[in-house]
Write a structure and sequence with these properties.
Chain A is 71% helix and 2% strand. Chain A is mainly α. The two termini of chain A are 37 Å apart. The longest helix of chain B is centred in the first third of the chain and has 46 residues. In chain B, 31% of the residues are buried. Classes of the chains: A mainly alpha, B alpha+beta.
Chain lengths: 213, 210
């Protein structure tokens, strides 16, 4: 059971695909202008990631290593197209606002990386857990960036006005540079937290050693 | 031999994938089409609301494709509706445009765009308290054959940070208006000459009514 929890939670913070592994940066920059888009993108990625991890894991013994990459891409592309068609039919508003970034999930390296590094070596169940953790971590990172950008750039959060009425939106935050700046600062913050943790660990370790002496 | 085996495996997998997608597409494509048609009908109603246009008659013109004539409850011609396609920043913007009989803009509605979220998408954003996007509202009542954004010394305020989107809409609506105007004028002319020849023919038969 602890294994399951470990595989799930590692995607949230410790191995967060965007903030720690620096994977899937393209959608994280492009679809993080509003929280609504970020959540839509996140949910699509969770679905594609879970399904492709499951299929890749089921096929892992049958897939010849030489052609594993094209096979993974076909599996991923199939699920992305499913998402695209279902979204266009039942959620046309979201489909329009995510636009080109839905088909681009195919080349989101988070998904290929999880297929290659995890699902092709692990059992279906644990692969799904890994996909859910990574997917939620990806959504979390996107939502975090989008929260900063939408509030500063538009004075709203998830479409609700949160800024005072005389607030002047910072247009820059809506544009690509805003995405880079926000992501840079969040990455720095995560690294700083990591440093602090390490320092803390080291300090306790040294203390332990002293006491042992 | 190995290559053939690998190729066959790959073919097998892609065949399954395309089969699945074909099945799903059969299911979703009618829904997508239906939604699109419904949206277009709603858009036609919406852009002609200011003129009281409720009935639409499709006109197929050889030169410019199809457009719609709009009639009010009493079957009076109140204007024309057409779809304008403009190349925006990251997509082709599809605008349903309504024109009065004098080719003023009666109303606009963007039915498809994939512009930059937060910038180009402002073209369809409705301000609090408004019913329609402010960007499109400013077109209403303006001469449709003479539209341009301020950057092009025109009369349309463009969206901050989305000049290309703004320009695409203004230019495409203007171009479509010009096309329809020409087509309508040509049709009227043809009708007139047809009537003239009919009248002449009747005259020859000595059946002309005073």
């Amino acid at each position: 059971m602890s294994d399951v929890r470990k595989e799930f939670t590692k995607g949230l913070i410790k191995d967060n695909p965007v903030l720690r592994l620096a994977l899937g940066l393209c959608p994280a920059l492009a679809v993080s202008a509003t929280v609504f888009d970020a959540l839509g993108m996140g949910i699509s990625v969770i679905f594609v990631l879970t399904m492709s991890n499951l299929i890749v894991s089921l096929m892992r013994k049958a897939v010849p290593p030489k052609i594993r990459i094209p096979i993974f891409i076909v599996v991923i592309a199939t699920f992305v197209t499913i998402v695209e068609m279902v979204m266009a039919a039942y959620q046309p508003g979201l489909y329009q606002s995510l636009g080109i970034f839905v088909p681009l999930i195919v080349v989101n390296c988070v998904i290929l990386a999880r297929s290659e590094a995890f699902a092709s070596k692990n059992s279906p169940f644990i692969s799904i857990i890994d996909a859910l953790g990574m997917g939620v971590g990806f959504t979390f990172a996107l939502t975090m960036i989008a929260t900063v950008r939408e509030i500063l750039g538009n004075g709203t959060w998830l479409g609700f006005t949160v800024a005072p009425s005389d607030f002047q939106p910072v247009l820059l935050m809506m544009l690509a540079p805003g995405a880079f700046i926000t992501m840079g600062l969040i990455l720095a913050w995560f690294n700083w937290m990591d440093d602090q943790k390490e320092k803390h660990l080291k300090a306790t370790f040294m203390l332990d050693e002293k006491e042992a002496k | 031999m190995l290559i053939v085996r690998l190729g066959l495996i790959l073919m097998f997998i892609t065949a399954i994938a395309s089969g699945t997608l074909a099945l799903l597409n059969q299911h979703t494509s009618p829904i997508i089409l239906e939604y699109k048609l419904k949206q277009q009908e709603e858009a036609r109603q919406e852009v002609m609301r200011s003129q009281g246009g409720v009935k639409f008659e499709k006109v197929n013109s050889e030169e410019i494709g199809e457009f719609y004539k709009a009639y009010d409850e009493a079957d009076n011609l109140v204007g024309y509706v057409s779809i304008a396609y403009g190349k925006g920043y990251s997509s082709t913007i599809e605008t349903v445009a309504g024109y009065t009989t004098d080719f003023e803009v009666a109303g606009l509605k963007v039915t498809f765009q994939q512009e930059t979220p937060g910038l180009g998408t402002k073209a369809v954003e409705v301000k609090k308290g408004d019913r329609k996007p402010w960007f499109l509202m400013q077109f209403e009542g303006k001469d449709a054959t003479n539209l341009a954004v301020v950057q092009d010394r025109g009369n349309i305020d463009s969206i901050t940070g989305a000049t290309i989107t703004s320009r695409a809409i203004a230019v495409s609506v203007k171009a479509t208006a010009k096309e329809i105007k020409q087509a309508v004028e040509a049709m009227e002319k043809a009708n007139d000459t047809q009537m003239d020849t009919e009248a002449a023919a009747l005259e020859m038969n000595g059946e002309v009514t005073p």
